[in-house]
Amino acid sequence: MSSEIREKDHEWVCKFHSNFDRLLASFEKLFSQRRPPVYGDELLTDKEVSHLLKVSRRTLQDYRSNGILPYIQVGGKILYRASDIERTLMDGYREAYRSRK
């Protein structure tokens, strides 16, 4: 790219602004799809939680059935509070230890 001054009607400047506008529109679309937190807590679907925990959706069903993971059921939709997921993970946290010689 040369160091010459570009006018606002120059092809390169117009293309740059066009690409920037498309990028901005993509960000706006992405953020508009984001669900606002409910009572200060984000609700996650089973698909999101299974991806987050790297387990199958069937395993999540077992966690619900066994009382391991709290959930909210609205109609046929299962939702999880992000804080419940974090608390469940921290409850299972075990500190590393070294054996003494």
Automatic annotation (TrEMBL):
Transmembrane segments: none annotated. InterPro entries: DNA-bd_dom_put_sf (IPR009061), HTH_17 (IPR041657). Residues 43-87 form the Helix-turn-helix domain. This is Helix-turn-helix domain-containing protein. It comes from Bacteroides stercoris CC31F.
